[in-house]
């Protein structure tokens, strides 16, 4: 397994938001984790990237334990995150945002990785000198994904990529995610939109009140009674 | 009449350039940490005093001046490492109070290590004024203005075109996103203090031949630089420069047409006016400072 998380817990000050997360992501897989608002999804993502410290449990990446390493070190090891709400550097141009995504990479490969992103997202090439904050929500999501890809990640973490997007853009975003995985990027996706996420995932987990409570393939969970009731509204 | 006005403008722009350099230091640290570093004036003092005493020790100017700047850079780094970094996670107000404490400590140390007297450095061109349209300008003032322009240009290039500069900017816009792309934001903060220390020291060295220096010179210069940064909008480099010029020129005009007794009050009257009418400053971001 590329990423193995066991018994992970995390606190916001004295409030515990994550109790017991256990899951794994294999190389080349697209794994989704679904859960309701407040289930601890974003806390989990912040703990995975190292922005928030873990209070218990372990994170293993490619056989090495990274539970206590700095966020910068995790990016260098190959874990890149598209944060919730995109978090672009708004006043900076699209291209500056992308270049910053390659902060941990040698300058020599910059031109090539930039070209890759513009090929993947042609709409961004036209707007490369525009401040990222002036783009539409869908385009900002593209910048956020492209910025994360600039680090040439071995594992791409996506936090609520559908949030705040119009339905047709949600489909487009999930299509992009599917394509990225098909092209060989390992993806761990956290989503409130359980139906869309489970539909494209190889495997998936359900997070409830800070604990992973169910797992299975995407289609198994789509058919699971509890999931249907709680998340799909069926 | 116009000659007098021109004379006031010249001295206003000269001192305004110094305020701008000090204000830039405030802005750079504010951007990296939201901290207002009240020890900024002490960097100015360290630059001037270290230069004076190194020259007095027999070092040639070419060696003494860079060493004085280096000392202020090191003090800046030390201040961040020793006093600010360990208090990470404390409220911004706590950090600001730490910088006030540091400024008092640095002032006291300077009085002990150096002395309590006023000092000056020889200016360039032997202090012979140049006549321009009936007004006079000191060669040192020309140097102050040119050096400030060169430093501002270099800073803009640094923030626009270098990886480190872009990383510092990115950290000011969104520290969490900066962490997520692998920027070591702690290093950014250290670097901000180093830069601010260097800028302050350069300002201190440049102004010493015109205005003299002593262990307490940083108090007023720091406050004026803070006014410059506030007037322009904290965090905006362009704002700090514009603010420095506004404060400097207003001061010179007041001293010239009213009385030099009111000179120092001008900066603070301007701050009050700006805070009342346009709290985010002339160039400030809307999400700017809230005190």
How does this model look, in words?
The complex is a heterodimer of chains A (234) and B (291). Chain A is α/β, with parallel strands linked by helices. In chain A, 38% of the residues lie in helices and 27% in strands. Chain A has ten helices and ten strands. Chain A has helices spanning 41-49, 71-77, 94-101, 110-120, 122-126, 137-149, 167-182, 194-200, 218-223, 225-232; strands at 3-12, 15-25, 30-35, 56-61, 64-65, 79-82, 155-159, 186-191, 203-208, 211-217. In chain A, the strands form two sheets. Chain A has a six-stranded mixed β-sheet, sandwiched between helices. The longest helix of chain A has 16 residues, at 167-182. The model of chain A has no long low-confidence stretch (mean pLDDT 93). In chain B, a hairpin with a 2-residue loop joins strand 1 and strand 2. In chain B, helix 6 crosses helix 8. Chain A binds chain B through residues 49-51, 70-72, 75-76, 80-81, 83, 87-92, 96, 99-101, 103-104, 107, 147-148, 151, and chain B through 163, 166-167, 169-170, 173-174, 176-184.
- Residues in helix, % of chain A: 25-40%
Number of domains of chain B: 1
Unreliable sequence segments of chain A: none
Question: Globular, elongated, flat, extended or rod-shaped: what is the shape of chain A?
Answer: globular
Number of helices of chain A: 10
State the major sheet of chain A. Answer: 6 strands, mixed
Assembly type of the chains comes to heterodimer
Strand content of chain B: under 5%
Our estimate of the beta-strand percent of chain A is: 25-35%
CATH class of chain B: Mainly Alpha
Q: Let me know the number of strands of chain B.
A: 2
Strand order of the largest sheet of chain B: 1-2
Output the number of helix runs of chain B: 11
- Strand order, largest beta sheet of chain A: 6-7-8-3-9-10
Radius of gyration of chain A: 17 Å
Distance between the termini of chain A: 33 Å
| Beta strand count of chain A | 10
Helix/strand-derived category of chain A reads alpha/beta
Helix content of chain B: over 70%
């Amino acid at each position: 397994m590329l990423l193995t998380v066991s018994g992970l817990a995390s606190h916001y000050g004295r409030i515990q938001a994550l109790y017991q997360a256990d899951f794994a992501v294999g190389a080349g897989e697209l794994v989704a984790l679904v859960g309701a608002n407040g289930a601890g999804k974003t806390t989990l993502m912040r703990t995975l990237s190292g922005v928030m410290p873990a209070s218990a449990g372990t994170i293993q990446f490619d056989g090495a334990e990274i539970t206590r390493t700095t966020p910068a070190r995790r990016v260098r090891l190959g874990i890149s995150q598209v944060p919730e709400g995109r978090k672009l550097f708004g006043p900076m141009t699209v291209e500056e945002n992308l270049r910053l995504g390659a902060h941990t990479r040698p300058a020599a490969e910059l031109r090539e990785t930039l070209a890759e992103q513009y090929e993947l997202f042609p709409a961004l090439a036209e707007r490369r000198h525009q401040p990222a904050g002036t783009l539409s929500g869908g385009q900002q999501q593209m910048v956020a994904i492209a910025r994360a890809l600039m680090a040439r990640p071995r594992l791409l973490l996506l936090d609520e990529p559908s949030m705040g997007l119009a339905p047709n853009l949600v489909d487009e975003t999930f299509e992009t995610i599917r394509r990225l995985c098909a092209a060989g990027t390992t993806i761990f996706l956290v989503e409130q939109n359980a139906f869309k996420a489970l539909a494209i995932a190889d495997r998936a987990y359900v997070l409830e009140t800070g604990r992973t409570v169910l797992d299975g393939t995407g289609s198994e969970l789509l058919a699971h009674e509890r999931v249907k009731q709680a998340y799909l509204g069926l | 009449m116009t000659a007098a006005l021109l004379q006031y403008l010249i001295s206003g722009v000269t001192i305004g350039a110094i305020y701008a350099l000090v204000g830039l230091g405030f802005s750079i640290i504010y951007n990296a940490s939201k901290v207002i570093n009240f020890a900024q004036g002490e960097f100015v003092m360290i630059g001037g005093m270290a230069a004076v005493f190194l020259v007095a020790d027999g070092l040639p100017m070419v060696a003494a001046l860079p060493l004085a700047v280096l000392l202020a850079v090191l003090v800046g780094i030390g201040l961040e490492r020793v006093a600010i970094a360990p208090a990470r996670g404390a409220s911004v107000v706590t950090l600001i109070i730490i910088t006030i404490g540091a400024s008092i400590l640095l002032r006291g140390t300077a009085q002990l290590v150096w002395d309590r007297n006023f000092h000056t450095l020889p200016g360039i061109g032997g202090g012979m004024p140049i006549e321009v349209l009936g007004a006079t300008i000191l060669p040192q003032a020309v140097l102050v203005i040119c050096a400030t322009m060169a430093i501002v240009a270099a800073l803009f290039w640094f923030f626009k075109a270098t990886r480190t500069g872009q990383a510092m900017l990115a950290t000011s816009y969104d520290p969490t996103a900066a962490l997520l792309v692998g920027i070591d934001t702690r290093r950014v903060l250290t670097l901000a203090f180093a830069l601010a220390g260097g800028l302050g020291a350069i300002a201190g060295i440049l102004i010493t031949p015109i205005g003299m220096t002593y262990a307490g010179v940083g108090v007023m210069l720091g406050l004026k630089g803070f006014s410059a940064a506030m007037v322009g909008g904290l965090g905006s480099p362009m704002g700090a420069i514009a603010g420095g010029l506004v404060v400097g020129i207003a001061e010179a005009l007041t001293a010239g047409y009213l009385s030099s007794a009111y000179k120092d009050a001008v900066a603070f009257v301007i701050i009050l006016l700006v805070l009342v009418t346009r709290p985010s400053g002339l160039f400030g971001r809307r999400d700017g400072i809230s005190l």
